[in-house]
Design a protein that fits this description.
By secondary structure, this protein is α+β, with helices and mostly antiparallel strands. 16% of the residues lie in helices and 53% in strands. A hairpin with an 8-residue loop joins strand 6 and strand 7. The chain starts with a helix and ends with a strand.
Length: 215
């Protein structure tokens, strides 16, 4: 029984090592036969950069900021801003795989927000104010499990975000740093694939998901 137990233990440890510490993809699958270019598009939740530029911390949190000034009595009946709403962050990326574990990418992110202005006397909507956030960012992706139809990876992106309100002139915008960390992501599929990522940064906190193609 002892040799059988030792053999079983070796097999289990070998399987664990294969999963946790996979070989470089170029060793298991020749990289010249693997797709090198990857294009993906996804959608994530509320961008944290919106909180930074609007001082409205929280998703869809009410921001009863008065629009018109005046004394205390006028302030009670002044128009005010309602909930800040967001379409979520739309993300398009293109990457090139240098090695089985290393991919260099660049991506574009866009988010549109809107906020109603309500009447202080009737509570009805009297105006809607729009704003936009864009980011152009390089990204490094590290693949730590590269099976034929499943990849596990993490990534780091750092660049610039551009914020513009419709109240501003065409060339009037603010620039902010853009940093996004994805400690865990999973993609399933080979040439056509879907992906889900868990991230933290100025683009989103939480989940991002989408579809992509490799060639």
């Amino acid at each position: 029984m002892k040799p059988y137990f030792n053999y079983t233990l070796v097999v289990i440890l070998s399987m664990m090592a294969t999963f946790l510490f996979p070989q470089d993809a170029s060793a298991r699958y020749p990289l010249r036969n693997e797709p090198r270019v990857e294009i993906r598009a996804g959608l994530s939740g509320y961008p944290v950069i919106c909180d930074i530029v609007t001082d409205n911390f929280g998703f869809w949190r009410k921001n009863y900021e008065t629009v018109s000034g005046g004394d205390i009595l006028q302030g009670l009946y002044a128009d005010y801003k309602g909930e800040l709403k967001s379409m979520g962050s739309f993300h398009v990326a293109a990457g090139y795989r240098l090695k089985g574990w290393l991919t260099l990418s660049g991506y574009f992110m866009y988010n549109q927000m809107w906020q109603d202005v309500l009447s202080g006397t009737s509570g009805k909507i009297v105006d809607t104010r729009w704003s936009h956030v864009m980011a152009v960012t390089p990204e490094v992706k590290f693949t730590f499990l590269n099976k034929r139809y499943v990849q596990l990876y993490g990534s780091l992106a750092a660049g610039l975000s551009f914020y513009k309100s419709d109240e501003d002139s065409f060339m009037d915008y603010d620039v902010y740093p853009h940093v996004q960390v994805v400690p865990f992501g999973i993609s399933t599929g080979r040439r056509f694939f879907g992906f889900t990522e868990v991230g933290y940064g100025t683009e989103f906190i939480g989940l991002r998901a989408g579809l992509g193609i490799r060639f």
